[in-house]
Amino acid sequence: SSSYANWGEQHLAQVIGLHCALPVACVFSGSPTAMSIDKLFPALLECFGIILCGYVAGRANIITSTQAKGLGNFVSKFALPALLFKNMVLLDFGNVVWSFLWSILIAKVSVFIIVCVLTLVVAGPESRFSKAGLYSIFATQSNDFALGYPIVEALYKNTYPEYLQYIYLVAPVSLMILNPIGFAFCEIQKWRNSQDQQHNKLRIVGVVILQVLKNPIVFMVVVGLVSHFLLGHKIPVVMQEFVDGLANSFGGAALFYLGLSMVGQLRKFTKSTVVALILLITAKLLVMPLICRDMVELLDSNSSSPQNHTSLSNYAFLYGVFPTAPSVAIYASQYNMELEVITSGMVISTFLSAPIMYVSAWLLTIPWMDPKPLVTALQNVSFNISIVSLVALVWTIAVMLLSKKFKRLPHMFAMNLFLAQFLVCIGMILWNFIVKQDNFIGQVLTFTLLYGSLYSTYVWTGVLHVHSFRCQPTCVTSICECDVTFGGTALPWAGVPCVHGVCVCVCVCVCVCVSVRQALPVTGVSTVCVSLPGECTAPCESPHCLLVQEEERLQQAADRQVARHTLLCLLLTVSLLANLSSCLWWLFNRDPGSLYLELQFFCAIANYGQGFISFGIFGLDKHLIIIPFKKRLASLWQGRERVEEPQAALPEEIRLTCTQFIRYHKDQCVQDIVQKRRCGERTVVGTFLGSELVEWLLRAGVARDRGEGLLYGTQLEQGGVLQHVAREVGFQDDSLHYRFTEGARTCSLRCYEFLFFSSPRSLFSLYS
């Protein structure tokens, strides 16, 4: 029985992340704690809390994308240059370890060259140079100031405060050396795509140099370094308050803008970007930190203090984990190249970096590693994550059942994946209690449930998009059953990497080769024959209205959510790569270190935290959760306003919008987008789609972006100028049918008379 117990403990370690139990006598020495982790979680909470506030403000259209550009210009052209100037002047070069800076420089250049060369070899000729330039910038330019500096300050301010200034010394490596090379590739691609190809190479070099010099960040770095020597390491008293005011405004504003810039970026996520995103995120969050640490280990080996050497290598690893800066997305938009990959990758890398940074910092503070406490800590982490993930999965599965999406493909496969993830959490929670009891049969059954369901999640990740081949998943499921049966006994070490490798290969091959069937194109109902005599004037009855039925069909077609399934596959494939790397690491290296231990914790978080990913992608269903919640909130708010002001008229802003539209835009809008469509057996109605109105407002210059167009249409709906054909929903930028009301002209005249007699200032603003 003792041998069976040892066997169970060994394979428990394998399941929860340690793919083979560490020897009891294996103890790894390390340096004393060189960083303070107590302030790390509050710092992460502060940073990502402000990012979340910015995202919510943009998602709720409180701040439109056009308005967000103003904040972005302030951050990049005023606050950040002032911050760089201040720190360049106050920089203390006496405490700088130059070998560390050379190590980071070599690491960035190495990753830049690797990504650039691979992209030039693999990418097609139509976009080869633009991808090489922007992908290389993506993999090397970190969010050093907005997100990196608060993290470093929380970790090293009390122990190694001089590490804070390295942020300002390392950042110019990308801005002044590597980015210009990437810009040159983009200019070459722009030149190749243009019809006029008579420009010489000298012009391309000139354009790149001019673009670098026009960058206010680069300019202020140079000015700050010159002022450092001219001003004697001090900012003049006359300028100090002014510079401090601008510099101190950077932190919160930059993080808030980062959240704003994330809104709508995942909509650009397509299946063609999957492989590029996997490779780029792997290069940024895995390859970069490892190379940074290795370079410090090699070049700083002659350091006088071993403790300082270890802390520098750990700091280099943490620096490499910093996510991609949002300015890379600005570069992509300026060149109008590779927007889908860059913007989606920026969002994913930002949120993936948070748990990696926290776990890395926590493990690097451990001065020694005893296997038994570590296995216990690993099991506790898995147990705690499983509880929270279980709640998220219950919600997600309930949403899938209530929305009835599980009956359709590919949601049917996603539902199987969610059930497997649910069983993984159940198995981990049960094991936490069963392992403490002397119940061998219970341990075997619980272990089988945990082991089999965990492997099922690996397999269903690969099966999720195989339905495009019209293949039956039986053969793949049988692989899982065979591995569950034999992998734990006869092939405990070889079975794990084999299953991981097969699943990863399936995912990558599907992402590369499969052409996933696109959602049905969004079109309106066909125009009716002129012979139909009646025109519908009353609200349509939903069960019988042909337009409402068409909306339901379009909604079902759009509800395949191909982009969401692709994103789910991408994130789970990254965790599969981590599990495969862990297996291979142990097979070929029997001396694990702190990085291997970190990889095990990451695997445990990835395996038992899959519910978070599923909930984030599918838990907040638009039609089942978000829209009803917004309608309920709006009704409660409007009801409160009616109680407070029972006879209040429409707000003046809405009256102005309705009057302006009816008097100056409605006639042309009706000619451009309104079409006669069949809504009953013998009735027609002039309708338009909500998305068509938003596009028309953009073309007419009434709105500057889709967010403003949505606000404009909402005000028209609230003012009674337009309404849904069945009066079921408010105005949405979607494939929903709306029509202009017959009483809109009368409403406009009444509003005009009201403005003329009561508010001449409002009338003046209307004409202006």
Automatic annotation (TrEMBL):
Keywords: Membrane, Transmembrane, Transmembrane helix
GO biological process: intracellular signal transduction; negative regulation of BMP signaling pathway; transmembrane transport
Residue ranges constituting the DEP domain according to the UniProt record: 687-742
Matches recorded under InterPro entries: DEP_dom (IPR000591), GPR155_DEP (IPR037368), Mem_transp_PIN-like (IPR004776), mTOR-Rac_regulators (IPR051832), WH-like_DNA-bd_sf (IPR036388), WH_DNA-bd_sf (IPR036390)
Gene Ontology CC: membrane
Cellular localisation: Membrane
Coiled coil: none
Ranges that cross the membrane: 12-34, 40-58, 70-90, 96-122, 164-186, 207-230, 242-260, 272-292, 312-333, 345-369, 381-402, 414-434, 440-460, 567-587, 599-620
Topology of this chain in the membrane: Multi-pass membrane protein
The keyword Signal appears for this protein: no
UniProt cross-references to PANTHER family, sorted A to Z: DEP DOMAIN PROTEIN, INTEGRAL MEMBRANE PROTEIN GPR155
Annotated protein name in UniProt: G protein-coupled receptor 155
Protein species of origin: Scleropages formosus
